[in-house]
Write a structure and sequence with these properties.
There is one protein chain. The protein is built from 17 helices and 5 strands. The protein is globular and about 75 Å long. It folds into 2 domains: 175 residues, Orthogonal Bundle (Preprotein translocase SecY subunit), CATH 1.10.3370; 205 residues, Orthogonal Bundle (Preprotein translocase SecY subunit), CATH 1.10.3370. Helices cover 69% and strands 5% of the residues. Helix 4 crosses helix 5 and helix 5 crosses helix 6. The longest helix has 34 residues. This is Protein translocase subunit SecY.
């Protein structure tokens, strides 16, 4: 505890780090305030609790902005959709592959394309959002005027969220967009604890303590899963020095993460799981089969939903790992850098060796990811409240753990840099006399 307090004290004694942390907190407060500013022309007393069922999952990532019909009602969801689309285009379209290989200039071009696509997607999603959440009796002004204003305000709110995320990345502690998603998820945590402890407290304090302990074990498991890597030994060839001597080759490692795809497989699978329920809702009153499909895929606790969800996650984990890690490119980079894997020939044998290891670690990684994804449904079926059960796994927990670990690494790098700067400023090189 004393070491923790000392580290916390050091953080706020570094001016740059203190400024970045305070900037991040201030921008996050602006983002949270925007989640409670209702669209102009709406009666706020008639919109509470609109986001239910599958829409409730989306509301978690937006910190209640979705159900509040706020100016940040779409949040960064259109940006995420645009990012996924551009990532897929860089795999399938040669033009985008060429842009991606242009280095910093290519990344800037792809970023501009993503932002332009975000505006288009935000305008399309705004119309669907208004149709799904706003009832005609809650509109207090002229309906045409309200819809015209909202179709401009909602995309503008998305662009404002993106600007806040960019400022957190540049002026804060990094991971701006991920930080916005995480703060939206965390904002619902106190209410979930209250619902579980107070409203369902009749089951006893001991059961609640057991639930907290189970949640702690799950969080520890997710941290271990997120950090787990398979290290492939890498040997650098011996190099000739300018003085005529020979430097011995360095030995390093290629770290292949057990979960190389992050939360993207769950996001892809969840988008597909939304489609059957959304489509069947339009025909639920006309067909009994469609009504049954709506009930099954609109409820994340049914075994049919969890089975299909798990299969999609495993398939998307392999797909996203394949498009994000190219063994042949790694082998070519190693060859150009005069490095090799001991006992493996350079070129295609190296690529095959890396691909074989990647295939072996992707299977347990995808299975664990599928288990984490369906844990909220299992927790709800075990008797936990719906709000509290969502923190027992799924995208929410993976995003929170990932963002917290990245933020801690950023802070640690600043502390380490300040430590070396302090040594350079305060010490002097031994063996030299002072002038």
């Amino acid at each position: 505890m004393r070491k923790f307090l000392a580290t916390f004290k050091r953080i706020f004694f570094i001016p740059e780090l203190r400024s970045r942390i305070l900037t991040t907190i201030g921008l996050l407060l602006v983002f949270r305030l925007g989640a409670f500013i209702v669209l102009p022309g709406i009666d706020a007393t008639r919109i509470a609790g609109k986001a239910k069922g599958i829409l409730g999952l989306l509301d978690i990532f937006l910190g209640g902005a979705f159900s509040n019909v706020s100016i940040f009602g779409l949040g960064v969801v259109p940006y995420i959709s645009a990012s996924i689309a551009v990532q897929l285009l860089t795999v399938a379209v040669p033009y985008f592959q060429k842009i991606q290989r242009e280095g910093q200039a290519g990344r800037k071009t792809l970023s501009n394309i993503t932002k332009a696509l975000t505006i288009v997607i935000a305008m399309i999603q705004s119309a669907s959002y208004l149709a799904a959440t706003v009832s005609t009796d809650s509109i207090m002004i002229s309906k045409p005027l309200f819809y015209i204003l909202s179709l401009f305000i909602l995309p503008a709110g998305t662009m404002a969220c993106m600007w806040i995320g960019d400022r957190i990345t540049d002026k804060g502690i990094g991971n701006g967009v991920s930080m916005l998603i995480m703060i939206g998820i965390v904002s619902s945590l106190p209410g979930a604890f209250f619902e579980e402890f107070v409203l369902r407290g009749s089951r006893g304090l001991l059961i609640f303590i057991f639930e907290i302990f189970a949640l702690f074990l799950i969080v520890v498991s997710v941290v271990m899963f997120t950090q787990a890597t398979r290290r492939i030994p890498l040997q650098y060839a011996k190099q000739m020095a300018t003085s005529g001597g020979i430097y011995s080759g360095q030995r390093q490692y290629i770290p292949l993460k057990l979960n190389s795809s992050g939360v993207m497989p769950i996001i892809f699978a969840q988008v597909l799981m939304f489609l059957p329920a959304l489509v069947s809702n339009f025909f639920a009153n006309k067909s009994e089969k469609m009504a049954m499909v709506s009930r099954i895929f609109g409820d994340f606790t049914t075994w049919q939903y969890n089975l299909v969800f798990s299969i999609l996650i495993i398939a998307f984990t392999y797909f996203y790992t394949a498009i994000s890690i190219n063994p042949m490119q790694i082998a070519d980079d190693m060859k150009r850098g005069s490095s090799f894997i001991p006992g493996i020939k350079p070129g295609k044998p190296t690529a095959s060796f890396i691909d074989d290891i990647l295939s072996k670690i992707t299977l347990p990684g995808s299975l664990f990811l599928a288990i984490i994804a369906i844990l909220p449904g299992l927790a709800y079926m075990a008797g936990l409240s719906k709000g509290f059960s969502r923190f027992f796994g799924g995208t929410s927990l993976l995003i929170m753990v990932g963002v917290v670990l990245d933020s801690l690494q950023q802070i640690e790098s600043y502390l380490l840099m300040h430590h070396y700067d302090h040594m350079m400023d305060s010490g002097r090189i031994q063996g030299r006399s002072q002038i």
